[in-house]
């Protein structure tokens, strides 16, 4: 039988006889409920949009590969890093953080940098940003922080009062605020920015020995940023500027690439380092722990369908492979639950069986049923464990390595509360012109804040990082440095 690929069918494959006119009782109607093709079209249309991500709603993505360039097997047994020259297919999603799905690409905002490696031992997700730090260091504050970045419940407008009130009451945010308000707050394109895993992770080698690790993706295109006036113009003229630039570059064969490097810290150093190495508002000095090259990431293929690949892609820092484990980072610990749970809500419990998320490795488990189950649901195989029917069983050698914990169960902060040294160091690294632009940007962002109390509290943080920093913002706002 010859199959006509141009024949229009219903979702269940039956041919459609009329796609221009609904079935009615006579030429004037009313419309008949028995027109199941009409009902299916309308019902599906109503459900074409899955709920957008609460954060990182606006994004762009691409396929590519990761190639190992240095042998680091003495640090990790991760299979995709096991030999120089080994290539692993991957998918990346770049995104803004706070805006909705239709917002502009060129707003001042961190950029999400989420990479999915389709390894032979299962998928590995590295879910980071284009900054090495974050605004907060405990996941319990995350919903409150994101609320400040969203819209006021009455006016439905962005609310600078909430933004700066939260930051001024959360001094740990100062390092990230300084980065955000600097020139790097608006990347020129998604290709011209670095990426970071941000959190501290743990690598474990074949002998069970571990090290702490931080990831750095260094753009081979060079770092370039947009001036605020140019970014504002683009936001009005072409709000999808970054999305378009990435697609066109790949489409024209100008494949963007990043070099992946890591910082490696011996486990015992975590107890003596001058900053808590698990605090995501802090960086490790590269003088103390130099960058070590791992490999190279190249993006060489655009998605065929945005919804199927970019919108339905799901990432979680808990999607790990043997040889890569988590750390006690309080923010990371919360994300291990929150990200996967967001996908179960937004896309469904079977999101990992969608083509864009499906691992190349064979999946064998006892998870069954649920919405959007697209495979054979385990067929007639055994569906519980332990069992006597040769079902899949655990492999003890793949258990995560243990690490020692101590102390009473309690709600406690990190031991280290120096939120000013690294922010001040960053400020002093900037050129005079960069400092001036940083202060101007902050002043412009803080002017709409209604309460001087909030402004003065934030100025105090800038001053503690560097007196010149605080004085510059205070002068711009017409305020005096608080006592």
From TrEMBL:
It is an enzyme of class 1 (oxidoreductase). Its EC number is 1.11.1.6. It comes from Paenibacillus foliorum. Keywords: Heme, Hydrogen peroxide, Iron, Metal-binding, Oxidoreductase, Peroxidase. Heme binds at residue 339. Pfam families: Catalase (PF00199), Catalase-rel (PF06628). Its cofactor is heme. Belongs to the catalase family. SMART domains: Catalase (SM01060). This is Catalase. Residues 1-29, 368-403 are annotated as: Disordered. Gene3D superfamilies: Catalase core domain. GO terms for biological process: hydrogen peroxide catabolic process; response to hydrogen peroxide.
